[in-house]
Design goal:
Layout lengths: L3 H20 L3 H4 L7 E5 L7 H4 L7 E5 L8 H12 L5 E7 L3 H8 L6 H7 L9 H16 L1 H8 L4 E7 L6 E3 L1
The site of zinc ion (ZN) has 7 residues, from helix 5.
Length: about 180
C-alpha cells in the first residue's frame, strides 16, 4: 500500500521535472559559480519565500532561512560571513514578517528552554506592542556584534545591513 509520504515524494519529483524544464536554458550559466549581490536572512516559514517575494531567479539571492530570522546560531552567522567574505555581497537584508509563527510561539510559551523561543523573547522589551518588530530590531543590532567580519564590512562601507518587514496579507515588503 502506498503511503501518503510516497505520494508527496512523487509530487515533488513531478514538480522538479517541471522546474528542470522551465529553467533548462539558464542552468549552464550558473554551474561554475555564483555572484549574488544580496544576502537575505529570513524566517523558515513556508509563506515567506524570498525568491518569489523579490521576483528573483537562479543565482540572484544568497538566502539563509531559520525560524524567527534570528542570528544566534553560529552556523547561521558563518553562512552569512561566507556570503560577505567570499561572495562579496553588498547588501544583507534581515527580512522579518508579519504573523510570524515563531514569534507567536515565543509569546505563548513562557519559561521555555528552547534556544529559539528564548532568543525571540529577549527582544520583546524593545517593542511591547509589536513583537515581530522587536525581534527584527534586536537582530539588526545584534548581528554585527556577533560577527566581527560583518561589523568590519559595514564599517568600511562594503556592506549595507538593511531590515525589512514582509507583510503576509498583501505581499508588500516594507524597507525600514
Ligand atoms: Zn516566521
Amino acid at each position: 500500500m502506498q503511503t501518503q509520504t510516497d505520494e508527496l515524494i512523487e509530487q515533488l519529483q513531478e514538480k522538479n521535472k517541471q522546474y528542470q524544464q522551465e529553467y533548462k536554458d539558464i542552468f549552464a550559466q550558473h554551474v561554475e559559480g555564483q555572484s549574488p549581490k544580496i544576502a537575505v536572512l529570513t524566517c523558515a516559514d513556508s509563506r515567506v519565500i524570498p525568491e518569489l517575494i523579490f521576483n528573483s531567479s537562479v543565482g540572484d539571492l544568497f538566502v539563509v532561512r531559520i525560524a524567527g530570522n534570528i542570528s544566534i546560531d553560529e552556523t547561521v552567522i558563518a553562512s552569512l560571513e561566507y556570503a560577505v567574505n567570499h561572495l562579496n555581497i553588498s547588501h544583507l537584508i534581515i527580512l522579518g514578517h508579519t504573523h510570524c509563527g515563531a514569534v507567536k510561539a515565543a509569546e505563548e510559551t513562557q519559561g521555555s528552554e528552547s534556544l529559539l523561543l528564548k532568543e525571540i523573547q529577549d527582544s520583546f522589551c524593545l517593542d511591547e506592542s509589536n513583537h515581530v518588530n522587536a525581534n527584527l530590531t534586536r537582530q539588526h543590532t545584534l548581528l554585527p556584534k556577533r560577527s566581527k567580519s560583518i561589523q568590519d564590512a559595514i564599517a568600511n562601507g562594503s556592506l549595507k545591513l538593511i531590515s525589512a518587514m514582509y507583510h503576509l496579507d498583501d505581499g508588500h515588503v516594507e524597507f525600514l
